[in-house]
Design goal:
Rieske Iron-sulfur Protein; three-stranded antiparallel beta sheet; about 45% strand
Length: about 130
């Protein structure tokens, strides 16, 4: 299921039981790679590409206590909640996206809001 509302696009990620706590997976939404993770009953989605090494974050390790994901290439940590780059060698954030659960289905909403646009502009300016 996919819906578009204004500049936002909502897409089904998976069924509730498809991902165990501490796991991460990847999906493409109109050419944008998105990593999504589950920590207990919380769900998170961020852009999938590490801003330092350009590798998939979905191959990384989720820290359930710190709500972070570690890039598998050089170990940079990103916040699952905000997309902030928390450790070197990454210094640029990735965009974060809204995740919702409706019954047994999990959805992501990709937006072009100011926060995500600002992260994109910061990434372009420092590239």
């Amino acid at each position: 299921m996919t819906s578009t509302e204004g500049a936002n696009k909502t897409m089904k990620l998976c069924e509730l039981d498809d991902l165990a706590s501490g796991e991460v997976a990847r999906i493409d939404v109109d050419g944008l790679a998105v990593a999504y993770a589950r920590v207990g009953d919380q769900w998170f989605a961020i852009d999938d590409t590490c801003t330092h090494a350009k590798v998939s974050l979905a191959g990384g390790i989720v820290d359930e206590d710190e709500l972070t994901i570690e890039c598998p290439k050089h170990g940079a940590l990103f916040s699952l909640e905000t997309g902030a780059a928390l450790t070197f060698p990454a210094i640029k954030p990735v965009a974060s996206h809204t995740v919702s659960v409706n019954g047994d289905e999990v959805f992501v909403t990709i937006s072009t809001d100011a926060d995500n646009q600002d992260a994109d502009k910061q990434n372009e300016a420092t590239s």
